[in-house]
Design brief:
This protein is mainly α. The chain has helices spanning about 10-30, 35-45, 50-65, 70-80, 80-100, 105-115, 120-130, 135-145, 150-165, 175-195, 210-215, 220-250, 255-270, 270-280, 285-300, 310-335, 340-370, 375-400. Helices cover about 80% and strands about 0% of the residues. It is found in: Membrane.
Amino acid sequence: MTHSPAAPALTADARRVVAWSTTGFTLMFAVWVMFAIVALPIRKQFGLSDAQFALLTAIPVLTGSLLRLPAGLLADRLGGKKLFLGVTFVTAAFALALAFAHSFSMILALALGVGLAGVSFAVGNAWIAQWVPAARQGLALGTFGAGNAGASLTKLAAPLLVGLVPAGLLIPGGWHFVPFLFALLLLGVGLLTARFTPADLPRQTTRTLGDWLRPLGNAQVWRFGLYYVVFFGAYVALSLYLPKFYVDHSGVPLAEAGLLTALFIFPASLLRPLGGYLSDRFGPRGVTVAAFAVMLLGLLPLTRELALVPFVLLTTVVGVGMGVGKASTYTLVAQWYPGQMGVVGGLVGLLGGLGGFILPLTFAALAPSLGAGAAFMTLLVLTGFSGLVFLGSMLRLRSLGRQPSLV
């Protein structure tokens, strides 16, 4: 389906919603994955095993995934701005508490609260969908989703911040300074968002809770979730996995490991608006097929032992496919389920986020038997299977002549 030239232009209020939700989500995503970096000095401080390290990095992803569906539902029913601001301020409180945590059990408990940052994705999608017409949602949602680049803020800045402030000062030092600074930034961005975005549109609806949840009975929605496990869940998993891989397997220092991981994150995040534009222009089905193909081309050689330079280049190729595929998947959601982005998008995001929780644990479990390539072997099989499911579904819908209706 091609983008219609008659699609209405965005209002000034809609543009402000997209801009400030994207800014907030970028920072929230940086907070969501900060344990990929700060867990490394925590591992050294507490002598964590690989299993404990994997659990610590994955716990925030679990919280931010499981709560996406109820948060998206509430955003649809109560208004996106209210929920977005609430999530921002509550996450800031947990990040601030984390800055003063001094036991591993307390860090684990607060990591669950910090994981609320991941809920901002479902809430932000619903908020944007309330302001942007469906025919333009591909680019708008893709722009918002580019906030995934917040992971690169963590990978680039956190290693420097860990050593910037020494312990023993009036403010927390060492790794504690990272959540402390993030908490202050969240408070600031939250206040600015409250000031410069319009109030929520009136939510007058006669839908019951059963009406809101009815689309979740469609197999198509769950297939969208499977695709999002590949494009987003695997992205989160690699964002968490690669810093440790570079430090332990390639022997590079933490700051360089963060930089190399950012080279994967940039295309996987910043190409999301391009994926949304291409989906609006040429249709999300073909764009999604291309995204699967690009990922498979990058993953296949990564299953073998490689030198550092080709390894980094191939992870960048995988990131290109992920960036485009994340946007095309949510364009499919917006086109097939207009007006229900909070619920349907919430479930799709939940499933994708659960992938980001389960996959790092899977990598750690398979590494003793499959070696350093375990992560990429797992992703190759998952991507190939999901791509086949998508192709089968696409061909069946085409044979039936089924197309979404833009409104």
